[in-house]
Amino acid sequence: MTLRHSPTSPYVRKVVVAAAERGLADRLTFQATNPWDPADDLPGDNPLGKVPALKLADGTVLFDSPVIVRYLDTLHGHAPLFPHDGDRGWWAERTHALADGILDAAVTRLIENVRRPKELYWADWDARQKAKIERALDALALDVDRLAGDPPDIAAIAAACALGYLDFRFQAEDWRASRPDLAQWYAAFADRRSMQETVPKG
Ligand SMILES: N[C@@H](CCC(=O)N[C@@H](CS)C(=O)NCC(=O)O)C(=O)O
Q1: N or C: which end of the chain has fewer CB within 10 A?
Q2: Which helix (H) or strand (E) holds 199?
Q3: Which CATH number goes with the domain that contains 121?
């Protein structure tokens, strides 16, 4: 399987961490891809022009990251990344969505602050995204006890990748101060080999 990959994408990181946590790391090969390069052939694999995209041996291309992680879950015999049992399963799905929502808002903020021409900066839009992130972090912090578990499920992996992305792109904004339990959980999770091997660079 070939993963179209960018070293700074938190959605890619989530897929790579999920694969590593279920013993699938050796099954992945990587194709470096810059989704912002108009000359890149990524749209031929993913019409949305986004990474991650996973190319299978038969030519099928899977996207987006939740679909790829679901596919990975069919390839191993360990505890499922997406828990099967009722309440726990729905909670994990919701927490995965919450974490991806943090990423969506954070990536939107990054574009607004870094890529968008300065004269077009829309402060209210930026503030709206920031508020989403703050509320979602509060919700994660309330449920921090449920993030525990070894091996981690998709909720914990997605939450950790979201927090790691905030550290990577928004170091100046301290999400830890008002959420010490979440900070403590993340400090331990970030030590896992799967996380250490995927620290974003760039
Ligand atoms: N919902 C998608 C989001 C993927 C995404 O937004 N990837 C970014 C990189 S972090 C990208 O490729 N952006 C290029 C673009 O939006 O044109 C997923 O979960 O895979």
Answers
A1: C
A2: none
A3: 1.20.1050.10
